[in-house]
Specification:
- This protein has a single domain, classed as Rossmann fold (3-Layer(aba) Sandwich).
- About 35% of the residues lie in helices and about 15% in strands.
- The strands form two sheets. A six-stranded mixed β-sheet has the order 4-5-6-1-7-8, sandwiched between helices. It has a two-stranded antiparallel sheet with strand order 2-3.
- The longest helix has 16 residues.
- The radius of gyration is 17 Å and the shape is globular.
């Protein structure tokens, strides 16, 4: 059948400052997911460079990228990506397990973050015992547990009702006010309006990059 090369992103250049709150928007197939995967060190660019802090992560091998993800990045997904067999506090502390932190230290950190997102009374519940909004709060706490440089969120309110979505966005606002760098991929203009910078993609290129 042969193969076809598809350029998901072409000649994209931009910088992200500490404390930025960015929404990435654009139609389906414009390159949003590819950009998020590159920024999250899930993929490497076929050309060009990507500096995270002072390191060119585009040249790192898989093991090095995995270490970067675990230490510097936090992820929040539309589908939550929680482990159903684990409790709230166990799901939150998973990233620390892979960093081989002492168990008592990991558990204490997870408890503090559960309280931070309003789930201090749900520590021993499993994901199926929680609402969608509560599960997303667990995912946010898990993203914060390693004190990341950047939090990346892919349609974080896409599976939530309007009330739960507003609560999650209010939590993101609070994290931004505390100095966290946030990058959200979204189709929802109301979600994008919460950010301080909007990058719109079209056909693999940046169509606009507007700071508010």
């Amino acid at each position: 059948m042969g193969s076809v090369t598809v350029e998901a992103l072409r000649g994209v250049t931009f910088d992200i400052q500490p404390g930025d709150y960015i929404s990435i928007m654009g139609p389906s197939g414009c390159g949003k997911s590819t950009m998020l995967n590159l920024l999250g060190c899930l993929d490497r660019p076929s050309s060009g460079q990507y500096f995270l802090g002072n390191e060119d992560v585009s040249q790192m091998d898989d093991d090095a990228l995995s270490a970067v993800r675990g230490a510097r990045l936090g992820f929040v997904f539309q589908s939550y990506n929680l482990i159903q067999q684990l409790t709230v506090v166990e799901n939150i502390e998973i990233p620390l397990y892979y960093q081989e932190r002492p168990e008592h230290e990991s558990r204490e950190q997870a408890r503090k973050l559960a309280a931070r997102v309003g789930l201090e009374h749900r520590l021993d519940h499993k994901p199926f015992e929680l609402s969608g909004g509560q599960q997303q709060r667990v995912a946010i706490a898990r993203a914060l547990v390693n004190d990341p440089l950047v939090i990346l969120a892919d349609e974080p309110t896409g599976n939530l009702d309007s009330k739960s979505g507003k609560e999650i966005l209010a939590l993101f606002d609070e994290l931004h006010q505390q100095g966290k760098t946030l990058i959200l991929v979204t189709h929802d203009s109301k979600v994008a309006e919460r950010s301080y910078r909007a990058i719109r993609l079209a056909d693999g290129q940046i169509e606009s990059d507007i700071r508010r």
